[in-house]
Amino acid sequence: MKSNGKMAQLTATPRTEKKGAALRLLRQGGRVPAVVYGPGLEGAAIHVDEKEMLKVARTGRSEMFNLNVEGDKTIPVLIKDQQERNGRLLHVDFLQISKNKPISVSVAIDFQGTAVGSKAGGVFQTQETQLEVEGLPGDLPTSIEVDVSELEIGDRLTAGDIKLDKGLTLVTSPDSIVASVMPPQAIEEEVPASSDEAGAKAAEDSSKE
């Protein structure tokens, strides 16, 4: 992946291999099988370098980048889906997008600060880790920072409370609870029988036999 202004670049190679054995060979060679979906593409089969793909994947699925298909054309895309196993990428789906057409994506929430309610003994809980927003591809952030430092015990932060950057529209229900600070509660755990009690019970059972 190379930086070209604000747009990252990822090189892709067309592939004809679609069977399991051929795909395994690709993966062993450090390549990731992938498919590009979009107008006129009809699920174009490609493969990309795994290390370069991981660099793109780390930026989040909301960041647009250019997919340079060797011998063909450059396609602006987002990561639609990816399959992983044991830290390795198995397959990636790319979605072709238009720079001038708004799209809806899920963006990770980056919680900032420590709630004052937590410092007072409350329990900070997160109910949502992502927000679905809509905007032009160039306006979509890789994450949404949310300051929770002012939350007190009993407070709830909803999706509608979060201020979005200009150009973004909230798709998630405004009433959805994103985070809260609950009052401290004693956690009652079942105490297992002690070894002495277990031994006494065993002796009692054996005497009945």
Describe the structure.
The chain is of the alpha+beta class. Helices cover 17% and strands 41% of the residues. The protein is built from four helices and 14 strands. The protein has helices at 20-28, 50-58, 116-119, 195-208; strands at 2-4, 7-14, 31-37, 44-49, 65-69, 74-85, 88-96, 103-112, 123-126, 130-135, 143-147, 156-158, 169-170, 177-182. The chain has a six-stranded mixed barrel. The chain has a four-stranded mixed sheet with strand order 11-8-10-13, with no helix packed on it. Strands 9-14-12 form a three-stranded antiparallel sheet, with no helix packed on it. Strand 1 (2-4) and strand 2 form a beta hairpin. The longest helix has 14 residues, at 195-208.
Q: Strand sequence of the main sheet, in spatial order?
A: 2-4-3-7-6-5
Average pLDDT, all residues: 83
The percentage of residues in β strands lies in 35-45%
- The parts where pLDDT drops under 50 for at least 5 residues are 1-5, 186-191
What percentage of residues falls in helices of 4 or more residues?
10-25%
- Major beta sheet, specifics? 6 strands, mixed, barrel
Order of helices and strands: EEHEEHEEEEHEEEEEEH
Number of helical stretches of at least 4 residues: 4
Rg, Å, rounded: 25 Å
Distance between the amino and carboxyl termini: 75 Å
Q: Tell me, what's the shape?
A: elongated
Number of E-state strands: 14
**Structure classification:** alpha+beta
